[in-house]
Amino acid sequence: MQCQFVNHVTGQCKREAAPGLANCALHTDKLVDSEKFSKRMYMIQNHDRRMRHATFSDHDELRTIREEIAIARTLLEERLNTIKTDADLIAACGPLNTLLLTIERLTTSCLKLDTTVGNLMAKPTLLRIASDTVAIILQELKDIPNHEEIVDKISKRMVDIMDSAKE
Fold it and tell me: Which residues contact 78 (CB under 8 A, 6 or more apart)?
């Protein structure tokens, strides 16, 4: 069965409808999640590109810089995927470098923005929260025999989580 999606410019979609649905995979996403799709800054028509964009992007209407980072990462990934030979790699060095620098600048700007609006937690604040959490656990488990060992294990796991978050 043919996809039932009709575009006002190009007419009815020529793709095959997805099994059990009236539309193809490309247009099913638009119908099922049309509100989310309509909020995207870029209306990426290619299904695979749109899916990759959605993977990279944590949509936030107030900070569209994340959209720009998602687009730049998608372009970088696509450019890398075109490299088949050493000659392709050498030819791609300039454009790849430009994309990497763009991603770095965008990411740095996003980090500064997150820091400015308070979305990032400073290390001393995180350590205080962890310390307070351990104190609460210690207080709540005080009547259990060998509770110190349990609290030590919990503390170690919390430190491991914080260390892994650095990476």
Answer: 49
Specify burial of residue 67 (Cβ count, 10 A radius: 0-12, 13-18, 19+). Answer: buried
Q: What distance in Å separates the CA atoms of residue 106 and residue 109, rounded to the nearest whole number?
A: 5
Who contacts 162 (Cβ-Cβ below 8 Å, separation ≥6)? 126, 127, 130
Which residue stretches of 42-146 are H helix? 47-56, 65-81, 86-117, 123-140
Whether the Cβ atoms of residue 112 and residue 104 lie closer than 8 Å to each other: no
Of the CA atoms within 13 Å of residue 165, those in its CB half-sphere come to 12
For residue 157, the one-letter residue type is: R
Give me 86's structure tokens.
């050493």
Q: What residues pair up with 6 in beta bridges, in sequence order? A: 12
pLDDT tens for residues 64-118?
677 788 888 989 999 999 999 999 999 999 999 999 999 999 988 888 877 776 6
pTM of the complete model: 0.41
